[in-house]
Amino acid sequence: MKHKGRFGNFGGFYVPEVLIPALEDIETGFDKYRNDRRFVEELDDLYRNYAGRPTPLYHARRFSEHVGFEVYIKREDLLHGGAHKVNNALGQGLLAKYMGKKKLIAETGAGQHGLATSMIGALFGMETKIFMGSVDVARQNVNVHKMKLCGAEVISVSGGTCTLKDAINDALRYWTSHIDDTFYLFGTAGGPHPFPTIVRHFQTPIGTEARQQCLDQIGRLPDKVVACVGGGSNAIGIFSGFIDDADVELIGVEGGGKGTETHEHCATLVKGSVGVLHGAQTYVLQDENGQIHETECISAGLDYPGVGPEHAYLKDSGRAVYTAVTDEQVLDVFELFTRSEGILPALESSHALAYLVKQKGKLPKDAIVVVNLSGRGDKDVSIVEQHRPML
Ligand SMILES: Cc1ncc(COP(=O)(O)O)c(C=O)c1O
Q1: Active site includes 374?
Q2: Residue 2 falls within a domain, yes or no?
Q3: Which of 209, 349, 374, 379 is labelled catalytic?
Q4: Could you say which of 41, 272, 303, 312 would form a disulfide bridge with 297 (CB–CB 3.0 to 4.6 Å)?
Q5: What atom of ligand 1 comes closest to residue 83's alpha carbon?
Q6: Is 107 an active-site residue?
Q7: 240 catalytic, yes or no?
């Protein structure tokens, strides 16, 4: 698998020797089942009847009036569990089942991937352990309770910044001594090969559906497709549907952190440099000695100093553009969007919406912009309340 899993110069699998057989095992399983008729039919049934696919494409008319162009929302927030994470968790969970694995582990930041994996663990009767930074355990504790209710064990990780990066470190460390019976259900389009390819595959229904819905409902493709980027799975899911449509601009929005400008230690693709993190060559927030910076972003799901290697490639090739918004802009749009549409966006997804507000006055009235609403904001209500108590 030497040259596999490369996106231009990015990707690869920079992992301890002991993990290579486990990654090869997953790659072999994926290649065997991804087009297997029984597997595809079972997954399709689960997507429809368990998760709630296809998700609607909704014309957000009042929000459109505010920004001055036409905004359509891909409603991944309506999926079971409240986010796009269930697409990947179902795909990899089913793969684990077909491969005869009995135990799942996963990392989580916002808790949405941890919750999705816990749901799938319950669904397939698999023992499930979720690694989560202690800072995230505190700020996303509604999801922690839900994971436990599904029967998962939540392991609070207290190394480093106690966030997603540290949860991945501990999950990988645990996996090195449990590869025989445990499937690492990786949550984003990052990490070592084959995860970026597998996660992208299971998130492609977002883009496939959105493209067809644009043609059916609007009669043409959009001018821009916008998604937030943490590790990059919801963004690559929706981008994948439009990547071959050269006239459709693809825009990824990262967390810029506190203050009025993007913080130096936030927004990996905007501020980072090329390095290796969690098994992949990609953009990384690091100092001149390669030490990883501590990130601080209001949304746990975007609080990560790395990014999926395909996004690094799309940035360098110019096919996608990456930008960042600040915590304050995110809180502003959370309020605006909720009040204009009656839909609570996840703080992660609010980053994509905040970018639209920044485009006010810059796009023609008839411009069409599709936003991936990757998740719902119920988990974030108390964080918003802390920052905007008058709301
Ligand atoms: C609702 C939501 N959106 C986006 C993300 C960011 O992840 P990704 O970039 O893999 O889509 C998360 C991560 O937890 C999330 O919960």
Answers
A1: yes
A2: no
A3: 374
A4: 303
A5: 1
A6: yes
A7: no
